[in-house]
Specification:
Blueprint lengths: L2 E8 L9 E10 L2 E10 L7 H26 L7 H22 L8 E7 L2 E7 L3 E6 L2 E4 L6 H7 L5 H4 L21 E6 L4 E6 L1 H4 L4 H8 L7 H17 L6 E8 L1
Antiparallel strand pairs: 1-10, 2-3, 3-4, 4-5, 5-8, 6-7, 6-9, 9-10
Length: about 260
Amino acid sequence: MNYIAAYHTDVGLTKKTNQDSLGIKIVETNQGQAAFGIVCDGMGGLSKGELASKEVILAFMNWFDRIFMDAVKTGEYDTSKLSDEWNQIIQSQNKKLGEFGKEHNLQLGTTISAILLYKGRYYIVHVGDSRIYQITGKNIYLLTNDQTFIAREIAAGRMTVEQSKTDPRRSVLLQCVGASEIVEPEFSTGVVMPNTVYMVCSDGFRHQISEEEMIAKIGPENTSDEQSMKNGCIFLTELVKQRRETDNITVGLIKTV
């Protein structure tokens, strides 16, 4: 399986800093190409959110370069170790950011949604309300579960999806890396599909646009190369801003070709 990728990030309409961070890599291995995408959304209501998201991104990119790639070069990476390695990174970063916050009398935290595509399967780790989607033809599938107050209320039948769109608690997280005493990441895996787009995004990207609009602009039938993927990301970001989204906006795409 081969991959192409594109991304776009925007500070948005009202914030002075972009607290989102993103990383995407595609590399050659002796088992074919591997692709890795990650987005972290620093908490807008917490101090130093941009520091938290950047630190977690750097920790995961360091894992990709030094652990994953080293194993691939010397033989073959053992994916059975993946969830343990990713969990160790998250627990270490949660402790590190928590201690930094206590030392400087502030709170800082970040979501994380990351996906590795390797040897025909995808592997996901997720904390918070950033998202990962799989877009195949005319269908779009959400591969992560929002860890939010709103999602919990909807699942319990105490709130409807329509009510959630205007609820002031929409951005309240149940956990995040750096500001939670205990972090329990969600892990999942599945089969990589041909001619499919895997999308990672912060919540600011998705609030003001529909899944149908995503499919129309960044679905596999409308993204023949990196430039068309990039153009789709920019178009949807500007559409989100026209609809008065106030958060930072970040989206990354990895397409199977």
